[in-house]
């Protein structure tokens, strides 16, 4: 499996080194730059999966870089996570309006940044699935537009979180999803570590789709998480 390639742009060398070290430890390939001009050139010459972009750069700042990137067709869907200082709320909002997918405020936890990168990449990887109107698995039919689920033709009443949980499991059928992965994608990083939240929702979901009796759909991977059979 090919490693995901991340480009980090920040003018503080110690931050570049810190992020690079931790991303490589998590299995990513990392490119880096300390200015906006080089960032554009690196993107042109490499196949990059995600950009971590500091707002406060010398010369061409992060906002200008974001504007330039979104003008280039092949970078329209490039995921961008912006690094901002606490007092830069206006710039942060502008960055999101220009197409940044997420932002994280300095000083930040490297662990949180890595978790956010993984979450954004997962969302990007499943965009094709999200465009499908109907997801089907055995007797389950999930309508992404109507937010309706039927099991063997019978309508099932799910909460929003239960619906998102079922959709994510079906979209990743056969793949083991850890509890923290499910928390990141469905509840957000603020819930990191509260894995009981996932277990409770899985239990309710199983009951509603009849899986608590048959065990036909959701498999518990002990000590890790869940997967859809």
Q: What is the H/E order?
A: EHEHEHEHEHHEEEEHEHHHEE
The general outline is elongated
Question: Cα-atom Rg, whole angstroms?
Answer: 20 Å
Helix tally equals: 10
Number of domains: 2
Helicity level: 40-55%
- CATH secondary-structure class of the largest domain: Alpha Beta
Side by side, the strands of the main sheet go 2-1-3-4-5
In CATH, the architecture of the largest domain is 3-Layer(aba) Sandwich
Low-pLDDT sequence parts: none
Tell me the total number of β-strands.
12
- The averaged pLDDT comes out at 86
Counting helices, strands and paired strands, the structural category is alpha/beta
CATH topology of the largest domain: Rossmann fold
What's the CATH H-level homologous superfamily of the largest domain?
Answer: Response regulator
Modified residues (4-aspartylphosphate): 54
Domain Response regulatory: 5-121
Domain OmpR/PhoB-type: 132-229
Pfam family, one: Response_reg
Can you walk through the features of this model?
This is Stage 0 sporulation protein A homolog. Residues 5-121 form the Response regulatory domain. This protein has helices at 13-25, 36-45, 62-71, 89-97, 110-125, 127-130, 160-171, 179-187, 196-208, 211-214; strands spanning 5-9, 29-33, 50-54, 80-85, 102-106, 134-137, 140-143, 148-151, 154-156, 177-178, 218-221, 225-228. The protein has 229 residues and is of the alpha/beta class. It folds into 2 domains: 5-125, Response regulator (Rossmann fold, 3-Layer(aba) Sandwich), CATH 3.40.50.2300; 134-228, Arc Repressor Mutant, subunit A. Strand 3 (50-54), helix 3 and strand 4 form a beta-alpha-beta unit. Helix 2 (36-45) packs parallel to helix 3 and helix 7 crosses helix 9 (196-208). The longest helix has 16 residues, at 110-125. It is elongated and about 60 Å long.
């Amino acid at each position: 499996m090919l490693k995901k390639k991340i480009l980090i742009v920040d003018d503080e060398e110690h931050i570049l080194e810190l992020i690079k070290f931790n991303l490589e430890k998590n299995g990513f390939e990392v490119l880096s730059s300390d200015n906006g001009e080089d960032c554009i050139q690196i993107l042109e010459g490499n196949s990059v999966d995600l950009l971590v972009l500091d707002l406060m750069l010398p010369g061409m700042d992060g906002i200008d870089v974001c504007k330039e990137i979104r003008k280039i067709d092949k970078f329209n869907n490039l995921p961008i996570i912006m690094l901002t200082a606490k007092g830069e709320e206006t710039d942060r909002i502008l960055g999101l309006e220009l197409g940044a997918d997420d932002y994280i405020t300095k000083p930040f936890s490297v662990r949180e940044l890595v978790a956010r990168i993984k979450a954004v990449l997962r969302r990007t990887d499943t965009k094709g699935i999200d465009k499908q109107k109907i997801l089907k698995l055995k007797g389950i039919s999930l309508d992404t537009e109507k937010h309706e689920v039927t099991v063997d033709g019978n309508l099932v009443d799910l909460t929003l979180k239960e619906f998102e949980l079922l959709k994510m499991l079906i979209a990743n059928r056969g793949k083991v999803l850890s509890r923290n992965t499910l928390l990141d994608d469905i509840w957000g990083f603020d819930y990191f570590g509260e894995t009981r939240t996932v277990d409770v929702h899985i239990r309710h979901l199983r009951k509603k789709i009849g899986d608590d009796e048959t065990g036909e759909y959701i498999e518990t991977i002990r000590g890790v998480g869940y997967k859809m059979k």
